């Protein structure tokens, strides 16, 4: 049954209508709201019921009976006032459902500042189509940067990870809606570039993982939805799409190793000592190893959205309002924001003259790099065991001070953090699963290439996590074997760098095609011993 859904904007002083759309009874409410196009996208936790970003206030609360987890996360008063977690409800069988939804604060619209623009015509547009964000770079005909930026992927309302998007895209109507979201965003970007005098975008190079690319092109994704996984579209083609310049798609070497990784390899191939590994630690972990003989080895594992700051109870995308780094002091933990503000377990920090807890607004959450440094600090202090459990007793005074802030809730153990935040036992488990999957993939890739970790010239970490995560923390937690942390190289958004290279260099496209044609793919989840190996890596240590 098709129903009307009325959305109201709760960010206004007085709620104003954001519009109405037609939805189907029984559809997931969060997806219906954020894929309606009536509100800006929001990075959601894929239905885990943990982040609270999908909260909506129901005009008639009786249509959506409250759930226990909503009371725990939102509070009794909010639930009594009609607030619900949209991800935990379906659209009710009612003629009209009126909701208020807070307007997301994350950048969600393409924008080009004239101050950013080099006064020259654009020759091409390089795009990194990420699951969470879309990064772009406008290029002059000679390949120089004219303007660049990023915005939230408007598909984010369908869920934070690849599998959530695929669940929507399995149906032709859902796939068409997701494709339209991303295409409309690029059309808007091209228009904004034109307004900012970056004209004549002749073509686009679009680098994205296989699922994001197939959805953007509105291609069948059934081969990516269930094992045995298969890739239906190999990339390395020019596509013609309505109201967009011609789009070049880099090679998609495997079902879950896409054009973002192949473009990253293209960017690093001539400037990086070998053998090297390029690792993208996003919602899907993708690793590419290029050895001295120009052999390319590839693998991928699902990591989930935790490394995007989505999923943990206090998870938050990196920004000035999140804690991005933790360290130890004699009295406990010190948390820092990206802009240098300091928050501690006590108002003053012993042994650090002049350093006090930051005043002003408290951070809203903890970023992925914050969680990595936090777990490494707890492990170092002895408050957390390699098995991922909070220890009942501890020998070190700092560990005892930390564990004094441990409490038991209905959902399990919870450790109080600076700035009124917390770390739950469930959060630790989710991050331990990420560690296990990544270290297993790294170990298996090295074995397939016949290399030891000591043979690697460098491990290239892409994206924001590579730029901000501390290698010593990754090594302490067992993401990396001992000694490899010293050879970690942050390579930034090398997918976007590669897309910019491929957009203007035909020889680079030819070389990448040959490299990917001969690539060796290691399909970890199809290995008979995968589960046993995964369990072996479920420790905060290299195994």
> What gyration radius follows from the Cα positions, in whole Å?
24 Å
Tally of extended strands? 24
User: Unreliable stretches, pLDDT < 50, 5 or more residues?
Assistant: 114-121, 347-356
Largest sheet: 6 strands, mixed
User: What's the CATH architecture of the domain at 114-249?
Assistant: 2-Layer Sandwich
Count of helix runs:
15
Query: How many angstroms does the end-to-end distance come to?
Result: 53 Å
Q: Could you tell me the CATH topology label of the domain at 114-249.
A: Nucleotidyltransferase, domain 5
Strand order of the largest sheet: 8-7-6-9-11-10
Reading off the top of the CATH hierarchy, the class of the domain at 114-249 is best stated as Alpha Beta
Q: How would you sum up the global shape? A: globular
Helix content: 25-40%
**Structural class of the secondary structure composition?**
alpha/beta
CATH H-level superfamily title of the domain at 114-249: Domain of unknown function (DUF4445)
Rounded mean pLDDT score? 85
> What proportion of the residues form beta strands (DSSP E)?
15-25%
What are the salient characteristics of this protein?
alpha/beta, 543 residues, single chain, Nucleotidyltransferase, domain 5, globular, 15 helices, 6-stranded mixed β-sheet
């Amino acid at each position: 049954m098709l129903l009307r859904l009325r959305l109201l904007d709760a960010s206004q002083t007085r709620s104003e209508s954001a519009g109405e759309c037609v939805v189907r009874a029984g559809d997931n409410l969060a997806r219906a709201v954020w894929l309606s196009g009536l509100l800006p996208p929001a990075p959601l936790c894929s239905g885990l019921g943990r982040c609270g970003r999908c909260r909506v206030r129901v005009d008639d609360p009786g249509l959506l009976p409250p759930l226990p987890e909503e009371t725990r996360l939102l509070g009794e008063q909010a639930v009594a006032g009609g607030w619900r977690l949209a991800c935990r409800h379906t659209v009710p069988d009612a003629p009209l459902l009126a909701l208020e939804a807070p307007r997301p604060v994350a950048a969600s619209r393409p924008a080009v500042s004239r101050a950013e623009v080099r006064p020259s015509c654009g020759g091409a547009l390089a795009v990194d189509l990420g699951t969470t964000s879309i990064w772009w770079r406008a290029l002059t005909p000679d390949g120089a940067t004219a303007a660049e930026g990023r915005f939230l992927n408007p598909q984010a309302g369908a869920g934070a990870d690849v599998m959530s998007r695929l669940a929507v895209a399995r149906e032709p109507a859902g796939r068409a809606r997701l494709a339209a979201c991303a295409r409309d965003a690029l059309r808007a970007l091209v228009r904004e570039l034109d307004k900012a005098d970056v004209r004549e975008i002749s073509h686009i190079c679009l680098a994205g993982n296989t699922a994001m690319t197939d959805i953007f092109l509105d291609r069948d994704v059934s081969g990516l939805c269930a094992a045995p996984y298969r890739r239906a579209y190999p990339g390395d083609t020019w596509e013609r799409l309505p109201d967009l310049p011609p789009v070049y798609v880099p090679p998609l070497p495997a079902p879950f190793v896409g054009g973002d990784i192949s473009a990253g390899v293209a960017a690093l191939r001539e400037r990086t000592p070998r053998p090297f590994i390029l690792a993208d630690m996003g919602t899907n972990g993708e690793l590419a190893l290029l050895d001295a003989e120009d052999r390319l080895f590839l693998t991928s594992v699902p990591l989930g959205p935790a490394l995007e700051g989505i999923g943990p109870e206090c998870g938050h995308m990196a920004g000035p309002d999140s804690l991005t780094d933790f360290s130890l002091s004699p009295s406990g933990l010190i948390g820092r924001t990206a802009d240098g503000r300091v928050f501690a377990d006590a108002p003053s920090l012993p042994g650090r003259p002049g350093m006090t807890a930051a005043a002003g607004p408290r951070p809203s959450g903890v970023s992925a790099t914050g969680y990595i440094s936090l777990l490494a600090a707890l492990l170092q202090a002895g408050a957390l065991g390699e098995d991922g459990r909070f220890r009942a007793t501890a020998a070190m005074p700092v560990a005892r001070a930390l564990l004094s802030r441990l409490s038991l809730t209905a959902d399990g153990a919870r450790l109080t953090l600076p700035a009124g935040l917390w770390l739950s036992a469930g959060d630790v488990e989710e991050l331990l699963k990420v560690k296990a999957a990544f270290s297993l993939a790294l170990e298996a890739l090295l074995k397939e290439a016949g290399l030891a970790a000591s043979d690697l010239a460098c491990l290239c970490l892409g994206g924001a996590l590579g730029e901000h995560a501390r290698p010593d923390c990754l090594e302490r937690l067992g993401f990396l074997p001992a000694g490899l942390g010293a050879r970690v190289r942050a390579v930034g958004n090398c997918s976007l760098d590669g897309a910019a290279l491929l957009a203007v260099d035909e020889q680079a496209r030819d070389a990448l095609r040959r490299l990917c044609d001969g690539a060796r793919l290691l399909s970890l989840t199809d290995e008979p011993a995968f589960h046993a190996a995964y369990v072996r890596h479920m420790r905060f240590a290299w195994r």
